Structure formats: C-alpha cells, structure tokens
Amino acid sequence: MSSSRRAKATLSAAIGLTALTIWAVHFQQEQQHKTMYQGVVRDDERRRRKMQLREDELQESRQKRESYEKVQPIEKSGF
Questions:
Q1: Angstrom distance (rounded) from CA 73 to CA 67
Q2: 9 Cβ contact list (under 8 Å, min separation 6)
C-alpha cells in the first residue's frame, strides 16, 4: 500500500470515527432531554393530583360544616 493510500485510509477512518462520535453524543443528549421532560410531566401530574385532593378535602369540609350548622347553628362573635 502506498503512503498516499495509507494517508487516505487514515483520514477516512478519522472522519468516520469523528462522525460516529458526533452522532453518539447527539443521540445521548436527545435521550437525556426526553428523560428530563418525562420528569417534568410526572411532576406536573403529581401536583395536579395533589391540588385535586386538596380541593376534594375542602369541598368535603364545607359539606360537613353545612351539615353541622343545620344541627347546631353557629353564632358569629364580635371578636
């Protein structure tokens, strides 16, 4: 193999390896981005469920208060 062919083969291998490395890094970054986004989606869903639970508890508390006030009215104090 002549030195020119050897140089071309080395250059081709270096270009191929560089391209493969760039692609691999890009692919890894995309995967990390997707993983991080799923974490945000899970956090949003958890917050939504928590707020719904609090709203349900508040509604239940209001209903209990109304039923208790029917049995025993509450007088408002001047304090």
A1: 10
A2: 1
Euclidean distance between CA atoms 17 and 20, whole angstroms = 5
Radius of gyration of the chain (CA): 33
Rounded Cα distance, 65 and 58, in Å: 10
pTM, 2 dp: 0.55
* 27-50: pLDDT as tens digits: 999 999 999 999 999 999 999 999
The sign of the CA dihedral 61, 62, 68, 72 is positive
Is 72 strand, coil or helix?
A: coil
- DSSP letter at 77? P
